Amino acid sequence: MEGHFTPLQIDFNKNKNLVNRFSVKWTPTVIILEVDGTEHHRFIGFLPPDDFIGQIMLGRAKSEFDLDHYGQAIQCFQEVLVRYPKTDAAPEAQYFLGVARYKASHDAKELKYGLEALQRDYPMSEWTKKAQVYGLTP
Amino acid sequence: MAEAIQWETSLTTAKARAKKEKKLILMDFYNDL
């Protein structure tokens, strides 16, 4: 984890300024931040180890995506899918993998391929519902 | 044996360390019930 992150623990009851600044209402809340304070990803609640690490890796991938580093983002989303395919982070990673590939190539077929992968591997996911519209692309 | 995680407890310090090491910040809000 420390390879890519500086870990910071904040006591919810003793840091009301930060609690309010980041609109934290419940614990645990984990937020992935840029040094300038830009938020890339957050999740709430206790997770089993694989799900926790999957979310952390998803946060890293989304940070690359947010910075328009699509090549890096694609690698990171793929890493989530390969290492943690059974976690809830995986369908979200699959969704954004399709989007990152589209943004990198400007080829709308990448969105359709992303939907097909979601329908095959995660048919019940909300991310599959969110990608349904991409099935209309020619 | 795995090394213990070096948690920061101040956002200011975490930002300085993250900037120096070119890393993201993983901020964990916890509550000792």
Helix content of chain B: 25-40%
Q: How many domains in all of chain A?
A: 1
How far is the first residue's CA from the last residue's CA of chain A? 41 Å
What can be said about the biggest beta sheet of chain B? none
Global structural class of chain B: alpha+beta
Q: In this structure, how is the largest beta sheet of chain A organized?
A: 2 strands, antiparallel
Q: How confident is the prediction overall: mean pLDDT of chain A? A: 96
Shape of chain A: elongated
Shape of chain B: globular
Low-confidence segments of chain B, ≥5 residues, pLDDT <50? Answer: none
Task: Work out the helix count of chain B.
Answer: 1
Low-confidence stretches of chain A: none
Q: Could you explain the architecture of this structure?
A:
The complex is a heterodimer of chains A (138) and B (33). Chain A has helices spanning 16-21, 49-66, 70-83, 89-105, 109-121, 126-130; strands at 5-11, 29-33, 39-44. With 138 residues, chain A is of the alpha+beta class. Chain A has a single domain (16-136), classed as Tetratricopeptide repeat domain (Serine Threonine Protein Phosphatase 5, Tetratricopeptide repeat, Alpha Horseshoe), CATH 1.25.40. In chain A, strands 2-3 form a two-stranded antiparallel sheet. In chain A, β2 (29-33) and β3 form a beta hairpin. Chain A is elongated, with a radius of gyration of 16 Å. By secondary structure, chain B is of the alpha+beta class. Chain B has one helix at residues 11-21; one strand at 24-30. Chains A and B meet through β1, β2 and α2 of A and α1 and β1 of B.
